[in-house]
Amino acid sequence: MMALAAAAAAAVAFFFGSAVKASTIEEAFVKDTVSSHDIVIFSKSYCPYCRRAKAVFRELNKVPHVVELDQREDGSNIQDALSIIVGRRTVPQVFINGKHLGGFDDTVEAYENGRLAKLLGTDDL
Q1: Contact indicator for 81, 30 with CB cutoff of 8 Å
Q2: Where is the Glutaredoxin domain (predicted)?
Q3: Where are the alpha helices (DSSP H) in the chain?
Q4: pLDDT tens string 6-18
């Protein structure tokens, strides 16, 4: 039984090895980006929900670091990495102070109920 599992793992590594390595690279990119900026939005430039999420931060006079996945050759791989990291492949995906806030609906809800302002430290302004 163990030999069969090892053979299956070897076959997966052989056929998908480069994809696994690429995903690891993109996972590291996501984690590094999120840890290097207070606000990060993984977005697509043509997505209306992404544009509206970015507008929320403009209303708060905050400038997020935006990664436009459709404008990067590795955008699809980054989207796959997001799926692994946060369980969602959809955009936008928003991170505040290194923590995943969520997508568009989560961002708007946090904005409307004041949680976003608290996370950003602007609730007393």
Answers
A1: yes
A2: 39-100
A3: 2-36, 48-59, 75-86, 104-112, 115-120
A4: 444 444 444 444 4
